[in-house]
Amino acid sequence: MTPAEKMAIKPQDMPSQAPEERRHNMREVALGYTEEMAKTEASRCLGCKGAPCVDGCPVKIRIPEFLAKAAEGDFDGAIGVIRESSLLPGICGRVCPQEKQCQANCTLGKALKDVGKAVAIGRVERFCADRQRESGKTPLPQIKPSTGKRVAVIGSGPAGITVAADLRREGHDVTIFEAFHKPGGVLVYGIPEFRLPKAIVQSEIDSLKAMGVKIETNFVVGRTSRISDLMEKEGFDAVFIGTGAGLPKFMGIPGENLVGVYSANEYLTRANLMKAYDTEHAHTPAIVSCKVAVLGGGNVAMDAARMALRLGAEEVHLIYRRTEKEMPARVEEVHHAKEEGVIFHTLENAVEMLGDDHGCVRAIRCLRYELGEPDASGRRSPVPIPGSEFDFDVDTVIVAIGNGSNPLISRTTEGLVVTKRGNIVVDENNKSSLPGIYAGGDIVLGAATVILAMGEGRRAAKAINEYLSE
Amino acid sequence: MYRIVEKKNLSELVFTMKVEAPMIARNRKPGQFVIIQVEPEWGERIPLTIADADSDAGTISLAFQAVGLTTKLLATKKEGEELAAVLGPLGNPSEIENFGHVVCVGGGFGTAPLFPIVQALKAAGNKVTVIIGYRTKSLVIMEEEMRNLADELIVMTDDGSHGRKGLVTLPLKELCDSPNPPDRVIAIGPPIMMKFCAETTRPYGIKTIVSLNTIMIDGTGMCGGCRAVVGGETKFVCVDGPEFDAHKVDFDSMMSRLRAFSPQEKEMLEKHRCNLQEAADAIAAKEAK
Questions:
Q1: What is the mean pLDDT of chain B?
Q2: What ipTM was reported for this prediction?
Q3: A290 reaches B (C-beta below 8 A)
């Protein structure tokens, strides 16, 4: 096919559950490509020189190569190429912000002057991964002979999973420590079932176990045992800290501790990990709401808003102080949230939460904003409009403005250098200030993404392997 | 894992359980708590204070009052059965040093988590006066244990059916007025009791510590469900507490937050009543044999 012919191929839409139906169920929204669709979409790749898409990928998947195989229907070959670079393709195909990474750089998207018309790399990746998983033929990586070295991985989220798999492959004895009763970190407590089915996460965990990685749940490092004890008494030669960004930020405004005000972490953990949406079975009380306000504009805010619809809220309002253009959420999540009926309020922000006589939230007081000069993040900063206050009746508020760093490890690990914000300081190899201790993912980056955490994990694993080989 | 090796029914609704959790038994300190989950798949996570531990046997003791769905389910568990999850030890340990004269106030089953603190305070050389209060005689727990440990023990019941009649704040105030007033007060019990203990000692300026037992999910700082207002600031009970300066705690906010889910909790108890009944019947049948 000539480039002109390729450019003429229609981008393949993702089949999805209808919005009016899916807003009442927890099943996955995006249903996935058919084989034909995957082939057609993959064949849109121009195979251009320099492959700028690869530069946009934090783990440098050889994208044109896997797309070429997929276009020919060689999906086994395609997933083989993906797996050389990415450990969790079924997950990344679903949750990566492709339009800001690989697809942002896609020559086709640029030629068509619309990043939305770039090759849907993530969707083809997802198809290849799902096809392999559903066939039950996900190959286990080769494990090198035992090195006799032991590595403790703290946290079983994307960074921890990556480090564990990479180091186990090198023949090290790896144990993951997870504080919750189920492994998976943010993939199980944070990202909802309708966006990332938990069975997919479980299959990745099962692969880790099959590789011989040990997983200790209900173990909070810093409390159940300190890092120094793991290394000095339990015989671990190296430690990777991948505890994530587990300390929800609040607005610091009056009324924030009223009943009915939740962090997105709490709201989503109740619904996802504790399965409170299943009121027939779960013992964790569901959050019952009529009118919900979600504060924030990231993926977590979208997840919380869409979860609120599924938990039966009549109205869900998303309040964000900049405009939609500045929202950090994936475009697809914003689109899905709108389709499902989440009502967007931009250039507004809460300044106070008002309570009733029982200490329950009854309204939020908001201010209107306009966009001013660009701030440090390069985004135009919101400037409040004086006198624009108004009250907005709600019975539930979900605060989704990000996470700070959890203090448990830094408080209990002497000599570990952290930033003013509590993020662990590491060098270019993800090594911390202490010998044998490495860190990566959100505990280093602040709140970021699954794929960036994986990228960090990959780099840390390489460095740990080198350290253990010395 | 987490096998129940001993279960005792201390009073009508109060139980203690010794549970296998070797790492926690070895590393816990007075004042710390655990998060437990009774059922693996659908269970709820709740915090319980560690009442005692035996590091040689690898067990911790938990005391609880069977009032909610999870604690009622827990009460149906028998020796030899296992809990789905026990995470800990969580929270900061109690501050223990030689303060001089310490008055420890325990209300209801709050007496149980107070026990290791009294032990540690005694070991640090304090004179410890213990006040324990209950609604009525049938609810009195740990009286003998406390008597053996404390320099002085004062038992109170609301109805006067055992010990002295009245609330714990009565002898607390008397002690504050006495020639040998406390240098420090530690109160653990229902929120309303802790609130009034704080009000009792406030005019005297006696440092008073309370242990908050709020709603929690993870217990590690991740969910923020446990937040409480202390000194006008939002604190996370799980990582900043559970013990705080009682004179700075906003108890009214804390109490309304504790009731956050009470309508759903009632509904759930109703829904699971038949399961609970079945479990209770099964135990009764087994015991009858």
A1: 91
A2: 0.90
A3: no
pLDDT in tens, B118-140: 999 999 999 999 999 999 998 99
B253-272 residues labelled b (16+ CB within 10 A) or e (exposed): bbebbbebbeebbebbeeeb
Residues in chain A closer than 8 A to B92 (CB atoms): none
When CB atoms are compared, the residue of B89, B225, B252 closest to A223 is B89
Place of tokens 């080989």: A469
User: Average pLDDT of chain A?
Assistant: 94
Low-confidence stretches of chain A (pLDDT beneath 50): none
**HEC string of A195-242?**
CCCHHHHHHHHHHHHHCCCEEECCCCECCCECHHHHHHCCCCCEEEEC
Interface of B with A in 196-255 (CB under 8 A): 217-225, 227-229, 234, 236, 239, 252-253
Pairing of strands A173-177, A214-216: parallel
Residue B279 forms contact with A (CB below 8 Å): no
Domains of chain B as residue ranges with CATH: 2-90 (2.40.30.10), 101-259 (3.40.50.80)
The shortest CB-CB distance from A257 to any of B222, B234, B272 is to: B234
Looking at residue A359, the DSSP 8-state letter turns out to be: S
pLDDT score of B286: 57
Cβ–Cβ contact A186 with B under 8 A: no
In this prediction, residues B237-246 reach a mean pLDDT of 94
Classify the phi-psi angles of A312: left when phi > 0, otherwise alpha if psi is within -120 to 50, otherwise beta.
Answer: left
Supply A167's token pair.
Answer: 């180091």
C-alpha B158: how far from chain center = 19
- Does the beta carbon of B272 lie under 8 angstroms from any beta carbon of chain A? yes
Q: How far is A124 from chain B (nearest CA, A)?
A: 34
Residues 6+ apart with CB under 8 A from A331: A99, A116
Query: Scanning every residue of chain B, which has its alpha carbon at the shortest distance from the alpha carbon of A234?
Result: B23
Interface contact A283-B260, CB threshold 8 A: no
Query: Which of B32, B82, B222 would you mutate first to test chain A, the one with the most A CBs within 10 A?
Result: B222
Structure tokens at A225: 């045992």
Distance from chain centroid for Cα A274: 19
Domains of chain A listed by start with CATH number: 3-135 (1.10.1060.10), 150-246+404-469 (3.50.50.60), 250-401 (3.50.50.60)
The answer to whether the CB atoms of B220 and A217 lie below 8 A apart is: no
Output the pLDDT for position A63.
97
Residue of B nearest to A399 (CA): B224
- Phi then psi for A5, rounded to 5 degrees? -65, -40
Cross-chain CB nearest to B42 (options A189, A275, A408): A275
Classify each residue of B130-164 as buried b or exposed e, where b means 16 or more C-beta atoms within 10 Å of its C-beta: bbbbbeeeebbbbbebbeebbeebbbbbeeeebbe
Which of the pair, A244 or B288, is modelled with greater confidence? Answer: A244
